[in-house]
């Protein structure tokens, strides 16, 4: 079975309140991450028709601060499907309701896994790709997964070779006492 990404797209808009802010009046990054996880879950569950859990989050860069009183819109779409997992692309935008100015606050990629009622992984529908953007997003997800695998294995303690890294480390803001 295959589904078009549009069938599972989800968006939410929420007013940012003082209870969501830190001491400087900016919205807590943790609150935004909470909303991002919610919408990733909704999108993945809508696509798979199963309960989904977050397996990983790939790079969250906060590009612009969000102020109390602004509207925050989160948009989610399935970018990639594996056998039981999906990569959900997220975009977060803030809107000043007085001026109408919209700012891109961050984009991120959540890997979600579909589960059955017993907590076992279950297969998910594949994607129907009918745009160049869809193919680009799918291919980018594959490359991102490969890069993550290489990143995590390169610094395994059993494979780590200090002589390959010590000179570089010493050029940083660190004191090495070996």
From TrEMBL:
- Does the keyword section mention Hydrolase? yes
One GO BP annotation is: acyl-CoA metabolic process
- Alphabetically list the UniProt keywords: Hydrolase
Q: Which InterPro entries does this chain map to?
A: Cytosol_ACT (IPR040170), HOTDOG_ACOT (IPR033120), HotDog_dom_sf (IPR029069), Thioestr_dom (IPR006683)
Cited PROSITE patterns = HOTDOG_ACOT
Q: Which GO terms describe its cellular component?
A: cytosol
GO terms (molecular function) for this protein are: long-chain fatty acyl-CoA hydrolase activity
HotDog ACOT-type domain: from which residue to which, for each copy? 6-118
Q: Does the keyword Isomerase apply?
A: no
Q: To which protein family does this belong?
A: Belongs to the acyl coenzyme A hydrolase family.
Name of the protein this chain belongs to:
Acyl CoA thioester hydrolase family protein
